[in-house]
């Protein structure tokens, strides 16, 4: 999957938008196979000796970022738009922007629910029990973000106390508390979301633990109070 993504990134990088790709091997794995002509960008590989969480891995990757923008990108993203990088950079460069993101589609072409309201207990009840969708966009799934590096640095990156799940909620709420916005670019990608927390007990436990951390932390309630 990572090899395929690197090939797609190279294909989409017509104007040299991508300077460096950092690949974190969170589980034991062989080094990536480099194509005969190499990639059009630098590639750094990080090999973890112990498994780390989503936020920790991205914070470590950010240490290798020397560019104006930092991209958070899942390996299961399919790049679908020829104007992707130009659109994302244009939105991320607007003053006051905390992050830019593309429209995210499911493999069948329907729009994925990556834009959501703040995750309060009441919001979860409305969403999962009453099946009511909100038109608020308080946070965006971190499957694909383009973040100004200065913003990522200013926020201290992801809160590493979240192993997996809700670190993107926390990040978005913290940037909003600083008066920054999230902006959707008019470019699309496809994401085959696995939704493992609905199928695997370990992921469900991580999700519940992260929700409890979010609900007991200051960012969510400070955001709701300021809303």
Describe the protein's architecture and organization:
The chain is an alpha/beta fold and 227 residues long. The mean pLDDT is 92. The longest helix is centred in the last third of the chain and has 16 residues, at 201-216. It starts with a helix and ends with a helix. The strands form four sheets. A three-stranded mixed β-sheet has the order 4-9-5. A two-stranded parallel ribbon has the order 1-2. Strands 3-8 form a two-stranded antiparallel sheet. The chain has helices at residues 2-12, 54-62, 84-92, 121-129, 149-155, 167-177, 201-216, 218-226, and strands spanning 20-25, 42-47, 69-73, 77-79, 97-105, 115-116, 139-140, 144-148, 181-191. It is globular and about 55 Å long. It contains eight helices and nine strands. It has a single domain, classed as Spore Coat Polysaccharide Biosynthesis Protein SpsA, Chain A (Alpha-Beta Complex), CATH 3.90.550.10.
- CATH top level is Alpha Beta
Number of domains: 1
User: Can you tell me the CATH architecture?
Assistant: Alpha-Beta Complex
By CATH, the superfamily comes out as Spore Coat Polysaccharide Biosynthesis Protein SpsA, Chain A
Low-confidence stretches: none
Mean pLDDT: 92
Shape: globular
Q: How helix-rich are the residues, as a percent range?
A: 25-40%
Strand order of the largest sheet: 4-9-5
Largest sheet: 3 strands, mixed
Number of helices, where a helix is a run of at least 4 consecutive DSSP H or I residues? 8
């Amino acid at each position: 999957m990572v090899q395929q993504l690197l090939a797609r990134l190279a294909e989409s990088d017509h104007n040299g938008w991508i300077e460096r790709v950092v690949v974190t091997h969170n589980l034991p794995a062989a080094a990536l196979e480099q194509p005969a002509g190499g990639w059009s960008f630098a590639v750094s590989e990080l090999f973890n000796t112990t498994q780390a969480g989503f936020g920790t891995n991205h914070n470590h990757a950010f240490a290798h970022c020397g560019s104006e923008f930092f991209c958070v990108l899942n390996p299961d993203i399919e790049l679908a738009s020829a104007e992707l990088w130009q659109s994302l950079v244009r939105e991320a460069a607007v003053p006051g922007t905390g992050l830019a993101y593309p429209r995210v589609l499911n493999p069948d072409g329907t729009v994925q629910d990556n834009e959501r309201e703040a995750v309060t207990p009441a919001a979860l009840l409305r969403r999962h029990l009453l099946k009511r969708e909100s038109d608020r966009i308080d946070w965006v799934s971190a499957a694909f973000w383009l973040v100004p590096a200065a913003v990522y640095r200013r926020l201290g990156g992801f809160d590493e106390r979240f192993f997996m799940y809700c670190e993107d909620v926390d990040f978005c709420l913290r940037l909003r508390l600083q008066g920054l916005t999230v902006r959707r670019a008019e470019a699309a990608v496809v994401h085959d979301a696995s939704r493992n927390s609905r199928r695997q007990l370990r992921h469900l436990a991580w999700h519940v633990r992260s929700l409890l951390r979010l609900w007991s932390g200051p960012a969510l309630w400070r955001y709701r109070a300021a809303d």
